[in-house]
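Input set for joint prediction.
Command: fold jointly, output tokens.
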Amino acid sequence: MNLPKPNSSYEPALVTRAGEVIPNAWQLLVDEDTTGAEGPYVLGFERALRDLDGLNGHYGVRVNPGDDVRLLEPFLDRITLIEVAFPGYRDGRGYSTARILREDLGYIGAIRAVGDVLRDQLFIMMRCGFDEFLVKDKDPAGAIAAASQRFSTTYQGAADSARPVWALRHGIGA
Amino acid sequence: MYVYDTFDHAFTRDRIREFSDQVARRLSGELTEDQFKPLRLMNGLYLQLHAYMLRIAVPYGVLSSRQMRKLAHIARTYDRDFGHFTTRQNLQFNWIRLADAPKILEELAEVEMHSLQTSGNCIRNTTTDQFAGAARDEHADPRPWAELIRQWSSNHPEFSFLPRKFKIAITGADRDRAAIRVHDIGLHIKPQGFDVYVGGGMGRTPSLGHCIRTGLPGEHLLSYLEAALRVYNRYGRRDNSFKARIKILVAALGPEEYKRQVEEEWARMDRARVDAPQAEIDRLKTFFPDPTFNTAAFDEAAFERARTADAAFARWIRNNTHPHKRDDHVSVTISLKPTGLPPGDASSAQMDLMADVADDYAYGELRVTHEQNIVLPHVAKNDLYALYTRLDAVNLSTANAGKITDMITCPGLDYCSLANARSIPLSQEISQRFEDANLTDRIGDLQIKISGCINACGHHHVGHIGILGVDKQGIEFYQILLGGRADEKAALGQITGKGLPAEAVPAAIERVVQLYLKLRTHDNERFIDTLERVGRDAFAEALHEPA
Amino acid sequence: MKLLTANRLHDGLTVWYSGAGWVEDGAQAAALADDVAETLLAEWKLRETEVVAPYLIPLTDRGAPVQREHVREFVRANGPTIGQTADALSKAFNRADIFEN
Ligand code: HEM
Ligand code: SF4
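tokens >
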């Protein structure tokens, strides 16, 4: 039997918006773990809200779909990475999370998409402000390149620097 | 109508390339069916009982003659020579090969059409009044706004994976012909701005939209929609697809609380990023001018001669024309509900003919209505008889617009994989029972709407008489609802008694109609008015008990 | 006994398992013993570059789909019961409608 091998069966690789495959230096702390000597750490959302006030240094935070990312506002100066989780790729809450971080809260650290991250979502993720992707694909860099070149035209403003079509039509923000 | 510029063309081309690539990856197995399904749905491709179905967007129902000819060509070349016009003002083809889909999209792009976002959990085609730009009771043309929404919602990065589909309807007239209160968002353009209704819908949990804002300035329409969608995207339920529509969220929060959250989101938003500038709104408005009306004096004597000589023409004029803002023009409804054929179906030859008559008598413009008919929005009265004669030659002159045989009917179990029961054969039985033109005319305006399952694609909740197919151990049964309406006095019909087997339905409806004819105070009291005056009970009794 | 049916990936047409492979004519569907049917179904679920959404149709003693599925399977096997394509399949395959009752 000649069974197909879906792209999503490849091990996830971390790739940046520029198409560079990078190692993942961050470690997700499960709730009972203490912060040891080896960093850097990604804290669960609840734990981040509880502990970040007393912590110094720079942390990552994992945001799941139901979490209200605006609660992180007081701690953003201590956060350098936010992992937005996509437990299933049809769950689109993470797109709002990223745009709120970028456009409303002014967060400038890294936003990383993790979970069920596939080639076909990369373009809209980039538009919403993601800059790192733990993507399941046999050619992660190629997937980024394809997504970056996919659309020459964007109809609406979002978190990236692409100008909406109406701005191009009327010479706004050139 | 709207004409693509280089940006619109580039976008459509890019989107087709993306989908072609996805199709190729599905065929090679790189994409699983589970992963591919939402991607194909976002391009309008469903898998139905017999084959793939492709749903083509007719943005806000507006079609040019050239586009209609292209649809005819696609029906002939890639399908079985006919298409199905739907209540969403779109068109469906029923036997499309997956491998052909990219080619069809390229053909559509040649005439500035696409199938984007006609399905899937994204913002769907905005629907509107089929008489937009022509009706006498209109104070603002909804089409530029619908186009503004189309562009903003196309490939929207934040709202491509919503909890569930999202449908917006918009009207600018006094009479609501767009059913705005049974859409996720309904917009009513008033002189002082937009009234925004949220949380309407049909399906399993029918509800009427709540007005959460009046007087919204047009220049902030997009940012307000963006705020409304963001609250929905973040907090709409995702655990149960039957509870995922915005109506459920609005009901759970209460309209006041939902409104508060939207306004809060809107207040925080950098609106300049989202709202298109006035210059763009003005640009869009330039695409919807009046045609250069033919101002030859109306030859009333000739018209009256034709009307007197040809009773069928007289009847067609009475039933299938609608008042136009100019006295020497009318809007014409081409009924796709002849006795004996599925409601909404048109053959490629009929599509070609409709394109031809649009060129010859209607300034090249057509509309698809949510009642599954075609409208020619501007026709000079002088041309009516010639137009009628040509329509009549291809079985397109059925004079039943708005009448009991002008039923909205979903595809039902003849096509749809979700159906409980067939809809089309039942609509045919009813058509046959009311085939007598004099009887139909005597009954007057009466809307029957049929769905083959609780999803309510056939709008049964808002039919004056609604019919819902249910399944009892593999036997088709139909529940009858009474008293729904989708107009400016929108109301949901109520289920009456037990379901009936198919063969009992036409007679039951006839009893209801006979009771109405007996009870009405005068010929102009419509069925729905009598029903509301007398109450449902008497009618429910007539339905279920042979007189 | 059961029938195995699906839609073909590349054109979406309804197909039936004949014992030797997939055919478009439901009249040639093989009635399969329940355990054989289950094994085949599991296998074809994995081969989704060929067919999609395969499933089994339980049969009555008379070889027709059980009542619960009856109208749906009648329509799938014979095509829409109304309109331009009514009876198209029975003509194409030169047979009477199947699963009549
Ligand atoms: C044939 C394949 C079709 C399928 C599988 C399908 C599926 C569905 C489903 C699942 C719903 C319920 C959505 C919900 O409540 O969340 C729905 C609603 C609806 N569909 Fe369809 N549909 C089909 C065809 C059509 C057609 C042909 C029309 C137009 C004639 C249509 C128009 C609508 C409308 C107006 C609603 C109700 C309004 C709403 O709640 O959104 N659908 N459809
Ligand atoms: S109402 Fe039900 S049967 Fe009719 S088209 Fe919609 S999903 Fe199918």
